[in-house]
Structures are given as C-alpha cells and as structure tokens.
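Hi R.,

Here's the chain you asked about this morning:
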Amino acid sequence: MPILRSFAAPLAVLALSLAVPSAGLAQQQNPAGSQAQRDAMARLAFMDGEWRGTAAIGGPGGSMTLTQTERVGTHLGGSIRVVEGRGYAADGTTQFNAFAIIGWDERAQAYTFHTYAQGYQGDYPFEATEDGFRWQTPAGPGATIQYVATIKDGRWHEVGHYVREGQAPLPYIEMDLRRIGDGDWPGAGAVAPTE
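And the predicted structure, written out as tokens:
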C-alpha cells in the first residue's frame, strides 16, 4: 500500500493535466497559428513569390557573381513564412543554398528567424522595416554580417556588410532581384488524407 500512495499524487496531477488543457496547449492545437502570428506574417507579404537576379559576393579569396533565386511563401495557415535561396554558377550548378523560417514570438513581441546555410544553422535578430527587413549573423569574434533588404515595386535589393568593432563596414554581398511571379510554394503538394 505505501507504494500505491507514493504514486497517487503524481497520477492525480497527470489526470488533471490531461483533463484541463493549458492555454499554451490549446494554442499549439490551432493548425493556423494565432491571429497575432498571422498578422505579423501579413506585414511581410511583400516578400512572397518567386524572384531571380544576381548576387555579387566579395571576400578575401576574391569575388564572384551568381544567378540568385529566392522563393517565399507562408505555411501553417499563414503563421510562418519560409524562404529558400539558391545561387547558381554560369554552368547551372548550385553554389549556394539556404533555407529560413520566419515566425512571430507573441511573448517577446518580436520576429524569430531560423536559418540553414552551408552546413550551419542558427537563430538571428530579424526586424521588419517600412520597406523591407534587416537581420544579422555573427562572423567571428567581435564581428557580424549585417544585411539590409529593400523590397518594393517588384525589386528585392539586399546588401550585406561585414562589420568588425572599430573598423569601417566592408561590403560582403549585394543581391539584386526582380519578382518573376507568384508561387504556390510551400503550400502546394500536401499529401492528401485519402487516396
């Protein structure tokens, strides 16, 4: 009987937690996310669609220019925005491929930005601006790469500068894209519930 009593309190807590869903759990069960998340994503609707242009990248090893493409769309009922960028060499081979997820954290009242590129991943500061966005990523001790994008009239212009404490910013990348059309990515092609 003492063994049974030692489990009674934890079992009661478990039963109560299963019977009364928390506010957080109820929110997680909404497949479309919250209204605040959808509103924050709507502010970034200017990014949506398919884009193509050039990316000029500089660095210690020299510079190169790639054909750059971006495709952007919402997912999870419009509560997140996903971005895929690809950079192609003149022969059509992929030289760069990145993927990002933009979300809205209601508790922090801030955008979240999780990226995957070149074998790395991370969460970075992201801010919507009046006509685009800005974000940054660490680039070694005391250094960052700071990106500023302007998107309007069907043009996406993004510049990244390498910034080290106590030094003038150095141009790192400049991307100039034109919107080539709407896209159905990533929402299209979901697996149907029946055959």
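The longest strand covers residues 64-75.

Let me know if you need anything else.
M.
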